[in-house]
Amino acid sequence: MSFSHRRVRPQHGVYALGTFCVGLGIGHLVTEGEGLGTGLEAFVICGISLLVVATGYRLPDRPISRSGQWRALRTAVGVAGSFALLALAVWLIWALEGNQTEFTFLLAFATALGSAVGIRSGLYAVEADERLNEARDLTKLLTINQRVLRHNLRNELAVALGNLDNIDRRDHGPETAEDVRTAQTHLESLLETTDRTREIVSIWNTDKRETFRLQALLERRVEAVGETYPDVSIETEFDGDPRVESHPTLPTAIEEALRNAAEHTPTDVAVSVTLRRDQTGAAVVDIADTGAGIPKFNVDAIESPEETPLVHTQGLGLWIIYWTVETSDGLFELLENDPTGTVIRITLETVEEP
After folding, report:
1. 342-348: strand order across its sheet
2. Which residues 6+ apart lie within 8 Å of 291 measured at CB?
3. pLDDT at site 297
4. What is the rounded CA–CA span in Å between residue 211 and residue 350?
5. Whole-angstrom Cα distance, residue 278 to residue 264?
6. What is the average per-residue pLDDT within 77-86?
7. What SS3 state is found at 346?
8. What is the mean pLDDT of residues 225-231?
């Protein structure tokens, strides 16, 4: 029986942390006996602990990713542990001086306070970090689009206008039709560039999520690409049929990866598509070719776009994959295949069965 880590959400972890701290407050009340002072101490501990529980209740509404919520929870646990160790150190100092009282209160109060401080500060820190990363991603996106449009607008329009100028300066003859076709080809290429850059921007601007069955999705896309490239054999190996929640353009991204593999692979060599789960339960899709591989300038553009002089139209498909996976909180990797070629790896977290 498989168990998906998606069934345990960060919200549950915050609830557990807050409940644990409430338990410490109740334990203090029970172990220290009755009395107004002890009752007030337990009230303070439980009050702080309930703040942690309330933070967990509002956690799904926070504008941060699920992985960011887990980071904030780990921060809270770490801070709570640090505060508890500090309380223990203070108590040891008191004990060495002959005063061994208030141990349970110090420990419970410090743990509850550390949990509250940790979860609140952790959420703010993670949110600020993710907003910063979002701004960096936007800068990267705008940089790529600017380079693509600047490069392709200039080149494609120069060719198209040159051929149209030829038409204007000569009498119409056999060469005219060829110039018209050339101009049309380059203008269509320019149109494709603008459509793809617009699609990339729309991916980044869309917050919607859809649930997909990966095996069924891969089978449909393999069939579609196989019809376009009938000479390319596409081998598949599926280990299970995991469900993932991702950006709605995941089918387009998968097809882009398949088309990239088909275009860069000799007709006598097969493209391979594998689906498996990794050790964490995440779904891993590998689309491998054994051709010449992805041009180096396209790989450099993905890994360090700020240092790449040009990004050509043929690399925009990789950006569609990259931004789809990035906005799905997944991992996109370009790996070298053995002995030659490229592996496009897409890793996505799975979701529990309905």
Report:
1. 234-238, 271-277, 283-288, 342-348, 331-336
2. 261, 264, 265, 266, 269, 340, 341, 342
3. 45
4. 10
5. 27
6. 92
7. strand
8. 85
* pLDDT tens digit sequence for 309-352: 444 445 577 888 888 888 888 998 888 887 778 889 999 999 87
What phi and psi values does residue 81 have, to the nearest 5 degrees? -65, -40
Q: Which helix (H) or strand (E) holds 171?
A: none
Residue 184 CB contacts under 8 Å (≥ 6 apart), including other chains: none
Distance (Å, whole) CA 91 – CA 287: 59
Instruction: Answer whether the bond into residue 339 is a cis peptide, omega within 30°.
Output: yes
Mean local confidence (pLDDT), 70-93:
91
Task: Please report the pLDDT score of residue 351 as a whole number.
Answer: 86
Torsion of CA 169, 172, 174, 180, to 10 degrees: 70
pLDDT per position as a tens digit, 129-154: 878 877 777 666 666 666 666 566 66
Q: Are 94 and 64 in contact (CB under 8 A)?
A: no
CA distances from 71 to 62, 67, 113, 115 (A): 13, 6, 19, 14
Q: Tokens 């172990």 belong to which residue? A: 31
| Separation CA 68–CA 178 (nearest Å) | 57
What is the 3-state secondary structure of 195-263?
HHHHHHHHHHHCCCCEEEEHHHHHHHHHHHHHHHCCCCCEEEEECCCCEEEECCCHHHHHHHHHHHHHH
**Rg (the chain; Cα; Å):** 29
Read off the DSSP letter of residue 350.
Answer: B
Cβ-in-10-Å burial (0-12, 13-18, 19+) of 238 comes to middle
Write out pLDDT tens, residues 22-70: 999 888 888 876 678 888 888 998 999 999 999 988 888 888 888 888 9
Cα 347 from chain centre: 9
Q: Which amino acid is it at 142?
A: L
**Which region holds residue 329: left if phi is over 0, alpha if psi is between -120 and 50, else beta?**
left
The DSSP letter of residue 270 is -
